Amino acid sequence: MKNPFHSLFQSASPKVKSKRTYSNKWRSFLFLIFLSCSISLGGVMSVVRAQTDPPAAIETFPKNSVEPSSPNLSSPNLPSPNLSRPNLSNSSFALPSPLPATPTVAVPANGKYVLELNRSPLVGNRLRLESIYDEARLRFTRPRNWKPQTVKMSLRYRHSPALYASRSNLTVLINGTSIGSVPLNQPETKIGTAVFDVSPDLIQDYNEITIAALQNNSPTCTQDPYDPSLWTEVLPDSKLVFDFQPQPIAMDFSRYPYPIFDTLSLEANQVDYLQPQTIDETWLTTASRFQAALGRVAVYRDMETRLISDIDQVKPSQPLIIIGTPESQPALKSLKLPLSLKDKQILDGKQQPFPKNVGLLMLTTADENRTPVLVATGNGADGVAKAVQFLVQTPDRQIGTGNVIVVSEVAPVPSPPLRQWSGYLPVENRFQLRDLQTYDRQPYKDVSVRGSHAPALEVDFRALPDDLFVPGSSMTLNYSYGAQVNPLTSLVEVQIDGVPLAGSRLSSADGAMRQSMKIEITPDRIKPNSKMQINFRLDPRERRSCSRVTDQQLWGTIHADTSFDLKREHLSRMPDLKLMQSAFPFAAPQDLSSTAIVLPQKPSPQDVALMLEVSARLGRLSRSDALQLEAFRADKLTPEKRKTSHLIGIGTQAEFPFPEAFEADGFALKNLLSRQRGQSAVQTLPDREGVLKEIVSPWNSDRVLLALTGQTDTGLDQVSHLISQDPLFYQLEGDTVLISANQPNLSEPSPDAKQDFNLEFLHQSPRREVSTTSQFERLLIMLRNNWFVLAPGLIAAALMLYGVAQLYLKKFTGQEQKDG
Amino acid sequence: MASSSTTSRARPRMPRSFKQRFSDVLTRLLVDRLPHAFDQMLKWLSKGQVAVLLISLILFFLPLVTLRPNIWQQGIVAAIVILLGRLFLHLEERQPEGRGSELLHLLLMALSIMMTLRYLFYRASYTLNFDEWIDTVFSMLLFMAEMYGVMTLILAYFQTLKMRNRKSITLEEIPVAQWSTVDIYIPTYNEEVEIVRKTLLGALAIDYPEDKKQIYVLDDGRAEKYRDRRIQLEQMCEELGCTMLTRDNNDHAKAGNINTALQKTNGDLVLILDCDHIPVRGFLKETVGFFLKDKVSLVQTPHWFYNPDPFERNLFTQGRVPVGNELFYKVLQRGNDAWNSAFFCGSAAVVRRSHLIAIGGIATETVTEDCHTSLKLHSKGYETVYYDKIMVAGLAPEKFSSYVGQQVRWARGMAQILRLENPLFNLKLKLRLSQRVCYFSATSHFFFGFPRLMYAIAPAMFLLFGINPVKGLGLETLAYALPHIILSMQTNHIPYKRVRFSFWNEIYEFAMSFQAGIVTVLALLNPKLGTFNVTDKGLVVTERSFDLESMRYLVLVGAITGASLIAVPFWLIISPLETQAVLINALWCLFNLLLVSAACLAAFEQPQLRRAHRLPRHLKAIIHSDDSQLIGETIDISESGAQILLDDWPNIPDEVRVELVGDFGARALLDARVVRANATDKLQVVLAIDFLNPSRTQLDDLTVVLFSDVREWYAQHRTETDKPFQSLRFIATSLRRAFRDLKPADGMKVRKQVRTTAKLFWEEWGEESYTVKVIEWGMHDLRVELSGIPALQLDELQYSKPILALLIDPVIESRSGDVLPYSSDPQSLLVRVESIDVLGSSSTQQPQINEIEDTLRVSVELSFPSSFDRQQRNKIKEILRSLS
């Protein structure tokens, strides 16, 4: 290893002899200035960057500045939208008057729906009630267009023979209203059945069933509340039976995304996309954005997507989405549209064609009014893009109403900062509980709990996927509690993912206001899916006779100014598919603007379907006001884009847009059904497996390339399942996944997908640390991971300081002598 | 067995040579190669650029400072670094003093600073406790105390970066006529005239042309109570031939006194001597040469005290531990000198009058006028010289209270300078940065008080009240703190090893903590507060006493610390979670208790054993006895006596005449009494002598021999070096020493060996007498042998200790046994029986009085009763002379 100073010095030394001082002084001076500046800058940068955006974000911004009025489509090969922002007052168009009546989806026949309790993950195989008093709660929704006519609850249950019948009973409540009680008086092992009539008025959009059991094994006093003989089980085939009358669905954007997507639906939502005549970037990008937007609406709800090539393939009441100009979607002609269509142009009320950059959104029906249809169109690609962008930008979408929307302008929504992930921990290292969000995205307020078995306050405490916590993180819990707690047995405790961090005794029997407790948070506890539980274990000072707990006087409050002080750095080791579970790094920033999906030059339906699944998944995993996801065909991807984006490549081995992915080390698919792993090569027949592989992007080492591929189209289908089904998706890890179905019939994936598929995880490529922080912090992280360089480092530092200091002293003395 | 012994002997030799070679190579690498490489690599950088590079490097290495590995990793790093420090120390020990040692010191300094920064970062980031307000308060206080400690450490590093070793500049080549004229100022206030006399004698004996040197006693003792003293002083000045200057006010104390005198005298240079600083003969010849350089305005030499200070005396260090000021004079002043910022210390310094007048005389704004004066000199661009040769023998304060008074004055004065002049940032002072740092270091030195107390209180607060100033105190804290502490100790060991032993700094600081803390804070608040107090010197402590007045608060702190140790078992039982913190605090408390009790012992005044302080000087001593002369050498000597080493056992009486010769030939002749004699291991003889009623002239001569005629004071070079563990043990055992009974020395009496007979008479015996052999004869007592005395009578003699009559025969027995005639008549003397030793039974051989009774052979110790001293003394002397 050459001394870093050596080369500098060697180049300098001949001149020292020849030119004497002047130039060298300059050079040394410049060197020193540079040195000191670079070091001080390094220090400053680390501060500044930690507070603002890391380099990746800086790279993403210029795009917007190049095409300022192009919020939606920035790809250079898309038709460029109108650069000047049109005056909004001039942008109104004459619409046909009178407007055609709002299309309505026809009413299907009355139906009956059986909601078995085992649909709830809470129930599973059984619902068990224990102790003297116990209750179980289940929630269900009512689909939008249902009007229940009769609702019956059928309860099947077993209970312990030890129960004393006159003091044991089972009560069912719906939304807080009792619908009936039964005494628990069945003979041993006999299954009891109770049927309750429910008033249809009780049923709302969101409903809660409470099943409460009072269980006693003695006529006077049940001594032990934890007696194992106190049990009742509600069997999973208990059910709620609806007789409902579907209501007509008015097609109106004010209720969007309904009816395209019903968040209250009891079944999986189904969406069909009509494939355009030619699949181009406009369609790919808009479809993927639209699908991602649907994914955001769906979040955890099931959604099934189909790509159909002909409008006849639609099924009744399955929404159809048509994206494209009348030219690319000739099926538009066959639809009953509110606006007239002539010569593949959509005309306004004055029978003039709309300008090409105006987007049009329409809701209509097809298939004899049985299918709701969403049309996003325009007379040009630009207009289509605008129309879709209107729907995927939350602030815009909320102002939509009626069944026709003419989108003349969509305001650009700037990309959120790279690390601002809604639902995750805030970017700042110091924040308060009120800065976190509840499940319904509201900030936390002071939370009070009552009773001795009050449920814990559960807070999403999700670390960003690239957060690396270092020792020294802490939280200060601010809490109050009421009087009459038993100071000997009551406590407040904090857990992360069920593992307690610390607890504090509630030491005053008279209660206390605004106590605070400082808790150190162990660095490796916080994960991207962590939850923090803050739990009051309140115990009354006295019990009533028969050990009955009187606990409603007990309360505890967690204050919203509970504060957190986290010490963290940003570092991720990629490729790592585990990070893919939180869509990292594709969802950074959250509007997906740094991600590009790339399909083969001629995308097959499987490719497109897979693209839609990936988009939906990315949508489910990210939250932001807008979506900037892009999709390209292989030949349309610019080198610039290829370099700056995280890439998701889709296609079979033969068609795969990035052959580079197969050149990487480790597992690779080869031509002609052959595979290679390291130096071994085999041929397999048939190769139906899907492959999901993540590598560091060959074009930018701070980006990744995710390859979704297979030898055959079946393989791609497998990948599709892997992406779309939660049980499979949340198993992802390693850098390469091979997936194959155990069952030949793949069209009917079972809810227990885990068993139906065979997954193999491979760790192959060497991981590279990708940090979004400054060089200084990277150095720190490097040192931390290699602590054994610390001692040699310190010694080397001491030696260097010593060498320079002695030189300084020598120079000082030299000068002194000169002075003297 | 034989083979094993040979192998074991052979084995160490091999590694030792390897070890030596390894050490040599490493030393060469570190001391020669590495600096050379850096010199070559960076020679194109200017001084300022190197400084920038240095700062950049420190910034560059910051990641090494901020890293926090887990506890055992940090433990390993700590161990490696400490071992490395030990290795460097080992290399340094093999170096002669000088460049190699200096460079290794610098290297250790760099390593130590890295570890200190690591500790600081860790401490600031993870251990500050803000849980409760009281924790916050104590946490911040302790942290500030530690910051102060780190600051002083860094300042000390700076001051010991380079140390200048000056050689005196000879005047020989310059014609005497051109030598500067020197005024010698001896300012006095209320000190004993005897003390001033010694200094005056020393000043008179200074070797410098008579017409170039003028001595002035500047007496400021104007008050009525000092009237007699002033008259005595006047007489003495007249007698010795020097000038006494007085003034009609006491403004600005010593500074004003000197400034007034400056107006009245006109020498080129002024030698300022405290009235208890006896200068050596060569003082001026060795210092005046420095003034050949025009810019030099001050030459300071070290202060040194020949008597034990309270720490030395009360902790019984017996000179084995460097005293408080050695660090300053032997290291820090030399370090300051390297940056041209050696301070004026008020005495034992030569100042150029013109420069002094240019800055308006001695500074009067503060109570440490000396340091302030040199600050002014430096800011005028003048130079000062520190010449590290002890050339005055002074008196340290005897009592702890006066020691405290002196230190408090310094503390106040230094804080005043810091407040008034603000040497670090005041742009009006034309000082270089290095000088600023040196002055800042000096003026901030005395702020140790409250930080020191904070260290003592912190662990006690935890153990007693559960106040936790260090969050998460445990092994991890130790893993950061220990390398910081140990490396700084190792680094300081190199310059300090002979001047400040481990942990003594803490004792000095603890002893002064309260007073220093209060005084410095007050001085910062109001720099005008406080007056110059004159330190009492030359007092005599006669009995044990405890100076509770000075130590009240420290005793309290000690009591709290001790009490907190009682809480330890309870903590361990009740709160097992905090075992680590409790144990560390307990150890810390124990350590504090040790230091605090040692500091308290400094105020436990121990009686002074001798009338005058013994100086371990090796002077030629000639013992005149009758006509013979014995030449020996003193082992130690004081104004009241000496110990003289002789090669052979002398046959001398117990009163002799001793002539002492100084290093340059000054002589003093004194009568002395030989108190006892001891044989040494080498079978030499050590005589302990007391001087007998010396006359004024004899005393003056002795003063000159003792204090002036000195080539080099023995305290110039200390041979003991610091060994931290020994030092700690020594401190730990000081309590035992302090309460030890003081035993007088024992030894043999010295009397003239004679062979003569005499007759012993006693009233009880009637006419009968015993013939005794006289064995030893002294001026006060004698020993005889007597045989044939009945045991019964012996008891009576022993019991009643009667006075007997002794008749000396006119004949003496020669060595060969011949009987020689004695010139004069028989002499009779009265003697008292002191003790009787039975030598043996002689019943069978010489039945004299009664054949039946047992007779004994005994040796009898007789003394000449002091009541008859006047009558008998001459007779005794005459007999002694005739016997020899």
From TrEMBL, chain A:
GO CC term (a single one): plasma membrane
Source lineage: Bacteria, Bacillati, Cyanobacteriota, Cyanophyceae, Oculatellales
TM annotation in the entry: 787-809
Keyword field: Cell membrane, Membrane, Transmembrane, Transmembrane helix
Main subcellular location of this protein, as a coarse class: membrane
Record protein name field: Cellulose biosynthesis cyclic di-GMP-binding regulatory protein BcsB
Stored InterPro entries: Cell_synthase_bac
GO BP: any one term: UDP-alpha-D-glucose metabolic process
Region entry Disordered, spans: 60-89
Biased composition, class Low complexity, residue ranges: 68-89
Native source species: Drouetiella hepatica Uher 2000/2452
UniProt key word Cell membrane: yes
Topology in membrane: Single-pass membrane protein
Recorded superkingdom: Bacteria
Matching Pfam families: BcsB (PF03170)
Entry keyword Translocase: no
Location within or outside the cell: Cell membrane
